Amino acid sequence: MDVVEAGVRERVAEVGHGDAVARADIDAAQEEDLSRHDGRVRKPAPTPLPLERHLLRAKDLVDARYREALDVPALAKAAHLSPAHFSREFRRAFGETPHQYLLTRRLERAAALLRNTDRSVSDICLAVGLRSVGSFTTSFGRAYGISPTAYREAYSPASRVPIPTCMQLAWARPQSSSFREDSRGRRG
Amino acid sequence: MLTQLATVQVWVHDQDEALAFYTDKLGLELREDVTVPEMGNFRWLTVGVPGQENVAITLMAVPGPPVFDDETRNQIVSLMAKGASGGLFFTTDDARASYEELKARGVEFQQEPTEQLYGVDAGFRDPSGNSMRMVQRSEP
Lengths: 188, 140
Known about the structure:
The structure holds 2 protein chains of 2 kinds.
Chain A: H1 3-38, H2 51-65, H3 72-78, H4 83-94, H5 98-116, H6 121-127, H7 133-144, H8 148-154, H9 165-171, H10 181-186
Chain B: E1 7-12, H1 15-25, E2 29-36, E3 42-48, E4 56-61, H2 70-81, E5 87-91, H3 95-104, E6 108-116, E7 119-125, E8 131-137
């Protein structure tokens, strides 16, 4: 096994496909041993995953764990990239920075909690992983054009069609192009 | 007239890795695994849910030339890796138990079991990036 191939396997194994890769490794090693003896052709190496797959893992991490103290360095770690490289590649793949994606995911979830629960604004802010109620209110205003309280009043439960969470996650996230946070996100 | 849906196709970046995932991790069963040397070693690989004999999933390698030029092939693999290539919806008797079981086997979840109008569902991915969901339907 050459160094590059070993590197790819190690990387893939690290990020969550250890079992399959380990098995493929054993198979390949056995094939290699056999080929020395009887001249059989060695089994081809597994197809490496494209970089985007590792970026997607970080994006999925946002969707699964936005409630926690996630930040861009933690997401970069999940994708096995440096924060600066990660932010650049994430933006190239998904059209926005990981910072923007994380913030808009939190705002989308906060909007859902405002519509569907009677929890307080500060409680909701903390529940979606944001720590400052002041910046939450500012960011929410930029995304939705009104304050969290006004948003809640505008969407009474009786006026809504119930939509499954997976569809809300996919469709209801606010656009982030007008955020001042963009520049901060770009720096990673 | 059409009688039934028999097979659905899922692109995968690596058939061996996909087979290991769909059988060892998801618990599906191998149905067919046929390699055709005269067709450039085209491999017809299908799996299915145990007990649901009439529907199979074919795990299809993304072909290069002469089927697709390299650029097209790479675009398909890239779209899958970005999670933009559709997915499969399964049902389960117990979404939370299945979640624990699959997670313990290393399946990557993007959404924990969540209460919905129609039951409890959760979202996960195959190694190529394809989206999978499982739903535990609530009692009618």
